[in-house]
Design goal:
four-stranded antiparallel β-sheet; NUDIX_hydrolase-like_dom_sf; about 190 residues; globular; alpha+beta; Nucleoside Triphosphate Pyrophosphohydrolase; seven-stranded mixed β-sheet; NUDIX_hydrolase_dom; 4 helices; Nudix hydrolase domain-containing protein
């Protein structure tokens, strides 16, 4: 996986083990990521990619950006985020631009404490084309490109958007307002 990153995300260009070792006082010991993909290919209005979780998965039918857990095998947290994006959508990260908002802290059923970091990214697409999203049906069943107004209304094109957590609305709106990432055209 080849990608570039802004200096503002340099802290995440290390393995999760190294990141946690440098921060022994953190209340979490596990790291997850969300990858925030924005496109302005829809008539100029920025829209963000959201995925609907599969009915057979945890948080069934709820919406979220692509992402997931960083694995021990991931060379860096950024690599883990890029891997999750590719596995869940078929899209490839070109550049990590920024961390958006504060990390979201949660606890899983096993009692593990997790921090989810949200990364604004750029993706690789064919020149002049919309990004082609290929879902993994074991994890997600639908996708939408939602505008800020649709996120706030929690409805996109007649589809209800119930998010996996309430904090996501703030992160998604903040990302769209800043539009820190746009698809990168390859020629």
């Amino acid at each position: 996986m080849a990608f570039d990153h802004d200096n503002s995300v340099q802290d995440f260009a290390v393995s999760k083990q190294e990141y946690l070792k440098l921060r022994p006082d953190m209340s979490f010991r596990h790291i997850a990521t969300s990858v925030l993909v924005v496109s302005q290919s829809f008539g100029g209005e920025p829209r963000i990619l959201l995925l609907q979780r599969a009915t057979s998965d945890s948080h069934p039918n709820k919406w979220e950006p692509p992402g997931g857990a960083c694995d021990d095998e991931d060379p860096s947290i950024l690599h883990g985020a890029a891997r999750e994006l590719r596995e869940e959508t078929g899209l490839k990260v070109s550049r990590f631009d920024a961390v958006v908002g504060e990390p979201y802290h949660f606890e899983v059923r096993s009692g593990r404490r997790v921090a989810r970091f949200h990364f604004a990214i750029r993706i690789r697409v064919d020149s002049g084309a919309l990004p082609v999203v290929r879902l993994d049906p074991a994890e997600h069943q639908h996708f939408v490109w939602a505008s800020e107004a649709e996120i706030v209304a929690r409805k996109s094109g007649g589809i209800g958007l119930e998010f996996t957590n309430d904090y996501l609305t703030d992160v998604l709106v903040l990302t769209l307002r800043n539009c820190v990432q746009l698809p990168v055209a390859l020629t």
